[in-house]
Amino acid sequence: MKIRNLKKIIVAVGCVALLSACKKDSQNIFNMFNDVTVTYNNSSPLAVTDYKLVNDGDSVYIDYTINSAVEDIYSVVVERTAGGKGNAIERNTIAVSDNSRRRAYRDLLKLKIQRDGKLSYRVYALNQKGVYIGDGYKKVVIEGKPSYTFLTNRVIYLPDTLGKILPSFFSLRDGVSYSYTDGLANSSKIDFGIYRRPTTDASNPWVYNLYATNVPVNPLTVYDISAWQKRATKFAAPQTSQNDPFTYTAVSASVIESLVKARNPTLSATVATTYGTGLLPGSSISFLTPEGKYGILFINAVSSDLDRKPFINVSVKIQN
Q1: What residue range is the signal peptide (predicted)?
Q2: pLDDT tens, residue by residue, 150-165
Q3: Which of 26, 34, 68, 61 is nearest to 45 (CA)?
């Protein structure tokens, strides 16, 4: 019995020893790249070292030093992350050709921030084989203050010439639709109305247009707006296939202004005669308000409600 117990003890000890011999310390992602450190230097009032809140158009510096204690640095990657299409990550790779800078590399990025919301930047090193060796577990965040207003999914009905109660007029600043019945009392806010005309295209029988309330010739004479207070909002001709530019490019007041100026809004009405040149889904209309605010009107949809009343669904980006 004693011999049998002794054998069991020997087997157990052997198993423990075998397991101990096979055990390996697994690498931890949170400490396996400690050989690389990154310092964001506070070298200027414009420099960001951790977080910085800025206005649209402000300049920001990222002054960084990246050190590697073990491996030489052959490339430095500056990675920018922001809200946008896809993963919205941009990377710029800088080759380090100076041997004297392979263990300590310093550089200065000068940025002009033209985006509302947060941007993050991180800097990391690659070795001779192009393998990641660390980012110091650091990043900096730059946040742009709100510079424009984003109004989404507003509904504007086509005119009902009998009851005159459907909201077919629109305020770009407030994002509110008004009917002809309540239009006079709110005419100081109203930028435009919409209407449609038949076309000769059987597949697209209607063309949709808009007109400012100060239009020289009222295109919808059944609505008498002669007594209304007029807003001299100016528009550009509709531009097709604008989902991505509206969503991902027009991301600050200064960018919106540049985009609108390029379209030269001088019209008091759109005058499309075919469906494809009017207000159609995916198109946008650049505008300039009497107060000098630039903006973009985007057509999300042209549809009808359950009562078959036609409408357009729009979103607006306008400078604050």
Answers
A1: 1-23
A2: 999 999 999 998 999 9
A3: 61
